[in-house]
Amino acid sequence: MHVFVTGGSGRIGSAVVAELLANGHTVLALARSDASARSLASAGATTLRGDLADLAALRDGASQADGVIQIAFGNDFSSPEALVRAVTEEGAALAALGEEVAGSDRPLVTVSGTPAAAGRPSTEDDPLPTGGPVGGRSVSVLATLQLASRGVRSVAIRLPRTVHSDGDGGFAGMLTMIARQSGVSGYPGDGSQRWPAVHALDAAVLFRLALENAPAGSAWHAVADEGDAVRDIAAVIGRRLGVPVQSVAQETYGALGPVFAADQPASSAFTRATLGWQPTHLSLLDDLENIQP
């Protein structure tokens, strides 16, 4: 399959590109900079210059492909306004990609977060939240899944709070960055809230399996660790960096404060049983041992 990939030079995307190429697919990857283009080309992908806001480039890439994987997302979490802009940009991109592949039965794979379920790990059957700081993202993903009625094999991979590799990535990586800057490895509240996690290389396998086999309108959980307590994550970070570990104000995390404070474990039992996905790489807590002081 010839696959158009956005976000292919990031932590998750680069793993996805490598996984696709290693399993007989070819890749056309969107490249927003010369550095990204060089990285993607060296990995074996063909590149198309543009970014997520370039809807003409997105349509062009999708028109050339047998399937699409949309991973790119703005990384500016500095303010609620910046987060809204990133969500809006992603929604417009998904709409453009969906229109391009409509009626073709080609796969369109996109991403969301895992939902919350009171008192238990969430499952693939639980609905995505459409309110809160990133609720607009769920709206866009749900609209994409509804394209199944228009001849699109639309699929959503629900990614956990932390997609990690080499001791970095996701929300845990943000905790590490803040600890380096502040000299304190912090967590909101009492730190008992749980975050699910997955290694980037394991997530990449699920993207490929979904691209190849998942039915239209389906959602899958890329979850290896159902939920580590945030205070346990902070404890490893603090030990590796040699800084104290303590509770800090939720406001420390800006626009993502409410998300950081929420308890949100997630299960992937259905995904594993149905698609045959089996994570094999390091757990989050083990991977955080790779943090360099």
TrEMBL record:
Q: Which domain of life is it from?
A: Bacteria
Q: Where is the NAD-dependent epimerase/dehydratase domain?
A: 3-215
Per its UniProt record, what Gene3D superfamilies does this chain match? NAD(P)-binding Rossmann-like Domain (3.40.50.720)
Please list where the region (Disordered) is annotated: 106-133
Q: Which Pfam families match?
A: Epimerase
What protein am I looking at? 3-beta hydroxysteroid dehydrogenase
Give the source species.
Frondihabitans sucicola
